[in-house]
Amino acid sequence: MGGKLSRLWKTPDQKESEDKLILPRQLDAEDEIANYASINDSAASCVGIARQSCVNCPTCRGTGRIPGEQEKQLVALIPYGDQRLKPRRTKLYVCLAVTICLLTTSLSIFFLFPRSIAVLPAGLNGSSIGFDANTTSMYLNMTNVLNITNNNFYVVTVVQLDMEVLHQSLVVGKTTVKTLLNMNPLQSGQIYYMVASTISDDNTYNICTWTKVKVHNILLHIQGTLTCTYLCHSEQLAFEDYQYVDCRGNATLPHPLYHRLP
Q: Is 131:257 a contact under the CB 8 Å cutoff?
């Protein structure tokens, strides 16, 4: 019983020696906590309240240092109010990114949106005609001109031209021209094509060979399809035209291919 009382009751010298051993440890802990203040001055220091609300960092366990071998494995803890965590000019960057995306999309749609390719027959460039008196047939070779206009902002390639010539709703001539014409953006071009036609009609033959008639014109209906490619896409453009052709040619008299026997 006396031993226990002697432990509880200590002399003043013993208490002072014990306080000296305890106080330096508390001061060292407060100094280490003071070093954990934030980079900005707004973060509150834990000095003075270390005994009440401060907890040790789970990474360095309150020492302020981490082992060198774990330098690339551990992540440092940054206070929530640190300036490095506050986004800067976020709205400006977002608005700028959205504006650039919208501008790029609008320009892409404007320049890559398919526009019409205008195909317009320009008429007859030249013709030659021959007659067969035995079969009352006419052989007509025509050279026509086709105007093409590219209204797009990219190159258009013409690959094929299919033509039909009709006389009185009958097909009298056909031709297929495989060409390779590159149309530059917003440019125009021309294609010359020739069609050989055979007209076997007695009335038309008589009109063209009758010398008393001053006007020798026949009406031909021309239908065609133009095949174009652009941006890995193929498109067929249909067109038609009506032409009056002088069936006497450039001569005053018809020049038959076969002369009648006397």
A: yes
Rg of the chain (C-alpha set):
50
Token match 């919208």: residue? 102
Angstrom CA distances, 90 to 86, 94, 95, stand at 10, 6, 9
pLDDT the model gives residue 213? 76
Q: CA quadruple 81, 82, 83, 88: dihedral positive or negative?
A: negative
Q: Is 222 exposed, middle or buried (0-12, 13-18, 19+ CB in 10 A)?
A: buried
143-176 confidence digits (pLDDT tens): 999 999 999 999 999 999 999 999 988 999 999 9
- Per DSSP, what are the bridge partners of residue 119? 148
Whether 28 contacts 34, CB under 8 Å: no
CB atoms within 10 A of CB 226: 22
